[in-house]
Amino acid sequence: MDGAKPFTIMMRDTEVMRVDFDALQYEVLCEKYLPYPLQGRLREIPKPSEIKTAYDMTQMVVAARKNEEAVVSFLANRVLLLSRANAKWIYNLCHFEQAGTDEQKVKIAMACRAVSVLDAYWLKFDDDKGLLWKAVDVKRNPLNEIIAQVALHGKSLTLQGSLVTPELTTNGAYAKAWRRHSDNFLWLYKLGANGNTESRIEVMCSNLLDKMNVEHVHYEAGEDEGKYVCMCPCMTTEKKSVLTGMEFISWCNVNGIDADRRMFETDGESIYKMWIVDFLISNRDRHGQNWGFYYDTETMEILGCHPLFDHNNAFDIDYMKDMDAPYQFDNMTIRQAAVKAMQKVDFHFTAPITRADFITERQYRSFRKRAEYLGLKME
């Protein structure tokens, strides 16, 4: 990362880690608030006075490179992927090179201070005298409407305003953008890839989950520039940030923790209910970034699972045909996972589910067949 400005990773207004790639400086200032993706990955670098031999020098270089890799990975994983719908439009608008490399992602992270709606980390530079979290927190500052328009609709516009925007750190495959509603809360707007099909499925699944004893993010149908969108409120707060499933498993592996055991010890009930939901709605898209945990932003304690979200790829035609499709957990099929989960938790419907709750007859029949297989009464 030659030529990158030195910076400090901040947790709100607490200095967490000082980074200077050129000077090989990776100094942890507050161990308590070290981001989970960095915990257990950093090596202690010998001080210049401790370097006596060529071997010592080699060890210093190795440690510095490991630390650089960890920090680069942490920042790069906060940046939207070029594969996301309209990402290339966003890159063009912001005059970013479309390289897709980690080095380029770090440059983008530095341009937007790595701010995200998922947590309270950000980057502070040496010339940011007096700059505080309240000035960069995207939850309470004006959003960049130009970048939001490009993120959602793929327009060719001229950049205006600040690059400190959540649009550069919101991942996923579909076109999406953050909007602030009259209640001052942030809402995520999402378009489907095939007309409005995926967005309508997202709303349908949300309405179905409303009739189950499952914590979930509520989606509503909306419109933006004449296009149908699904929209949901931001699920993080000042006190709760998100640790994705992918980050959780990686953190466990790096720190010698049994991920499966820790997962179920933390909130096995929600994990099992997720398995049942995915079976019922034929969800093929439960990857490591659309499930995970909350953690307390004061204590850093991992809390229970965050609410379920992102079901716009549910009721996949091939998945509806195959009740024994492979599942992402414990080498089970999706049916095996659901059967196992039904033996572990109290899962039930809290209101009648009828044909009117589904877009198509095929979706209704698939759901009904799976519910009956699990012994669940829909009406």
Give an overview of the whole structure:
There is one protein chain. The chain is α+β, with helices and mostly antiparallel strands and 379 residues long. Among the domains are: 7-137, no CATH class; 240-373. It is 32% helix and 15% strand. It contains 10 helices and 11 strands. Helix 1 (54-76) crosses helix 3 (102-111) and helix 7 packs across helix 9 (334-342). The model has no long low-confidence stretch (mean pLDDT 94).
Concise structural overview:
By secondary structure, the chain is an alpha+beta fold. The protein has helices spanning 54-76, 87-93, 102-111, 145-153, 197-209, 245-254, 259-280, 317-321, 334-342, 361-373; strands spanning 7-11, 14-20, 25-28, 121-125, 176-180, 186-190, 220-224, 227-233, 240-244, 292-296, 302-305.
What does the secondary structure layout of this molecule look like, with pairings?
Blueprint: E1 7-11, E2 14-20, E3 25-28, H1 54-76, H2 87-93, H3 102-111, E4 121-125, H4 145-153, E5 176-180, E6 186-190, H5 197-209, E7 220-224, E8 227-233, E9 240-244, H6 245-254, H7 259-280, E10 292-296, E11 302-305, H8 317-321, H9 334-342, H10 361-373
Antiparallel strand pairs: 1-2, 1-4, 2-3, 5-6, 6-8, 7-8, 9-10, 10-11
Query: What average pLDDT do the residues reach?
Result: 94
Percent of residues in β-strands: 15-25%
Radius of gyration: 22 Å
Low-pLDDT regions: none
Intertermini distance: 60 Å
How many H/I helical runs? 10
Given the C-alpha coordinates, what overall shape results?
Answer: globular
The ordered string of helix (H) and strand (E) elements is: EEEHHHEHEEHEEEHHEEHHH
List the strand order in the largest sheet: 3-2-1-4
The structural class is alpha+beta
Largest sheet, in brief, is: 4 strands, antiparallel
Find the count of extended strands (DSSP E, 2+ residues): 11
Considering DSSP H and I runs of 4 or more, what fraction of the residues is helical?
A: 25-40%
